[in-house]
Amino acid sequence: MSQPTATTSDSHLDAIWHRALLDELCAIHRPSASPGEREAAEWLIARLSELGIEGRIESEPAHGTYWWPLGIAAAIGAIGGLAALRGRRLFGAALAGLGAAAAVDDLPPHGRRRLRKLLPHGERSQVVAELGPADAERTVVVMAHHDAPRTGLLYSPAIPETLLGPVPRDRIPDTSPPLMWAAFGGQVAAALGAALGIRTLNAAGTIWSAGAVGVFADLAARDAVPAANDNGTGVVGLISLARALAADPPQNLRVLFLSTSEEATCDGIAAWGERNFPQLDRDSTFFLCLETVGSPHLAVLRGEGMLRMREYPARSLRLLDGLADELGIELEPNLRNRNATDAVQPLFAGYECAAIVSVTELHQLANYHWPTDVPENVDYDTLRDAIRLSEAAIRRLDERWL
């Protein structure tokens, strides 16, 4: 990992400043929809205010986890599968099917999260700030998130290192595994096995669902990590862009800085989008997401989606790829994400958008959801390149639209 050094005269690209910001943010214990998340939001508002950019915090009730709703859905599936194995086939099939439907309903971008709405709530705190002409015809929304994820054995770095370490680099998969399929796959198998009278399938689905309950219980028992890379780096990138644009504001572009509550499977951007997408024209709005940009290799995602993969718009990709070439920034090619960044909501809503991320040699997010996700393990060269690329995209969109 590169260490922070003052390598540029541009103050917004100063890695020593980036490290200082990360140290401050990571000192805040900030799980989703918690008082710590509110404190992080207030910290971000203060940093923007220092740059002359006034923002606001949008607060609303939110559950703040994904392990409880998905764990309950898996438990329903396991109970249904067990009931079918004990002779109540139709009841068991219906119950397991209900568990599968509840899990799918909790996942972005289309889930309505009905089960989650029944669970205890905290308070979600999201930051919105604005710069540029208020009456501009074009808008860029720069997105990050300031909450922090919980760790769990599911995220142990030993798993990808064991599975992918011996694989030649040119054969490492460029699409991340669909981890969240495991949240409903057991219930589907149990329901099908019960409905069709296939006892082995029913039993396998029941065991799978019970195993998922164990995984989510492990997450519930853990605590949030410092989250320097995921996504302190995105927040630092947002502040850095705010500094650059405050010093030289766009002339034809309104820029919204949006920092969400993301770690409960993108529920913050889902709620924000319900309120704001109707006012944001699809032909004149661009979403730019900074997500975990402190791993060694920078990338612009080609596609994304937990349940169904959708490709990013070709025009958006051409813009980012072309600017990376102009700036001499090497991008890791052809990466797709089966988990979700906040960009998944505007992507499926039909906006021009792009997600800038970073990965290791194994195409993994460095220190992902692990206690080692601390400021000293961030690659500050990658963070700087993400900021450079993002600023270039905003400047180009200010000059001319896609």
The CATH architecture of the largest domain = 3-Layer(aba) Sandwich
Q: Total number of β-strand segments?
A: 10
Largest sheet: 7 strands, mixed
Main sheet strand line-up: 1-2-4-3-5-10-6
Alpha-beta classification: alpha/beta
Low-confidence stretches: none
CATH superfamily of the largest domain: Zn peptidases
Order of helices and strands: HHEHHEEHHHHEHEEEEHEHEH
Care to describe what's here?
- This protein is of the alpha/beta class and 402 residues long.
- The mean pLDDT is 96.
- The protein has a seven-stranded mixed beta sheet with strand order 1-2-4-3-5-10-6, sandwiched between helices.
- The chain folds into two domains: 11-63 and 123-177 and 223-399, Zn peptidases (Aminopeptidase, 3-Layer(aba) Sandwich); 67-117 and 178-220, no CATH class.
- The chain has helices spanning 15-26, 35-50, 67-85, 89-105, 158-164, 182-196, 199-221, 228-247, 267-276, 314-327, 344-349, 380-399, and strands at residues 55-62, 122-131, 138-145, 253-260, 285-290, 297-300, 303-304, 310-311, 336-337, 352-359.
- Helix 3 runs antiparallel to helix 4 (89-105).
- It is globular.
- It contains twelve helices and ten strands.
- Strand 7 and strand 8 (310-311) form a beta hairpin.
